[in-house]
């Protein structure tokens, strides 16, 4: 019941998460607030995939707006029956929430792989992914971070921002999954109640028919 009652709340939560994802992803292009490295393409390859801007950002934002619209208004009417209308709206919400699961899941995986790969930085051997072969072990080896000489503090910058993006996309994934469960429960329970009502109506009509037949016989 709690999931069904707070379906629109779940959709509303996606909006700030998507906006924060866009902002944090943009910060990845400006290490230490400088645009010089972005202009010379001295940034990690995963930055140019635009997951935080496109997938867990703009796409999730659009899905959230549509979901909120479906919840808060009579935006979509497919037929004259109110129960039919609710069923189709729930079906559309399930499809949109599943798309949200796909978008946020893809972003979360890509951000995690980017964090494991490490930053693209300048060291004694030139510009390269010097932590690529550590399988993420560099994250706890703080003494190795000084090997990246340029951009300054790039390891800290990437680690913090990517961790935030992983958390944001992970929350989006959880919310979209809960939305799918809530809409499935609402649809299945609604369909079951319709079946019960139809069965009761059929039983009533049968009793009425028997009563009419008996009254006709005795008359």
Gist of the model:
This protein is mostly helical and 219 residues long. It is 69% helix and 3% strand.
Descriptive notes:
This protein is mainly alpha-helical. About 4% of the residues have low confidence. The protein is 69% helix and 3% strand. A two-stranded antiparallel ribbon has the order 1-2.
Secondary structure elements and pairings:
Blueprint: H1 2-5, H2 7-27, H3 36-39, H4 51-72, H5 82-117, E1 121-123, E2 126-128, H6 154-218
Antiparallel strand pairs: 1-2
List keywords for this structure.
219 residues, 3% strand
- Beta-strand fraction estimate: under 5%
Overall residue-averaged pLDDT value: 79
Shape: elongated
C-alpha end-to-end distance: 52 Å
The residue fraction in helices comes out at: 55-70%
The number of helices is: 6
**What class do helices, strands and sheet pairing give?**
mainly alpha
Poorly predicted segments: 191-198
Give the SSE order as H and E letters: HHHHHEEH
Strand order of the largest sheet: 1-2
Radius of gyration: 27 Å
Total number of beta strands: 2
Q: Please give the largest β-sheet.
A: 2 strands, antiparallel
């Amino acid at each position: 019941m709690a999931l069904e009652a707070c379906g629109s709340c779940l959709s509303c939560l996606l909006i700030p998460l998507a906006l924060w994802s866009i902002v944090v992803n943009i910060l990845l292009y400006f290490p230490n607030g400088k645009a010089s490295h972005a202009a010379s393409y001295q940034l990690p390859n995963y930055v140019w995939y635009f997951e935080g801007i496109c997938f867990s950002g703009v796409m999730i934002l659009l899905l959230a707006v549509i979901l909120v619209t479906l919840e808060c208004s009579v935006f979509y009417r497919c037929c004259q029956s109110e129960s039919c209308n609710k069923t189709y709206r729930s079906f559309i919400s399930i499809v949109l929430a599943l798309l949200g699961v796909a978008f946020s899941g893809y972003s979360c995986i890509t951000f995690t792989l980017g964090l494991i790969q490490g930053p693209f930085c300048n060291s004694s051997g030139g510009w390269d992914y010097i932590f690529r072969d550590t399988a993420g072990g560099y994250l706890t080896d703080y003494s190795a971070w000084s090997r990246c000489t340029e951009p300054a503090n790039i390891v800290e910058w990437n680690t913090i921002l990517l961790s935030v993006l992983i958390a944001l996309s992970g929350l989006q994934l959880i919310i979209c999954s809960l939305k799918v469960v809530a809409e499935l429960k609402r649809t299945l329970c609604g369909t079951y109640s319709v079946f019960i009502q139809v069965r009761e109506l059929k039983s009533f009509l049968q009793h009425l028919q028997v009563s009419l037949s008996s009254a006709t016989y005795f008359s």
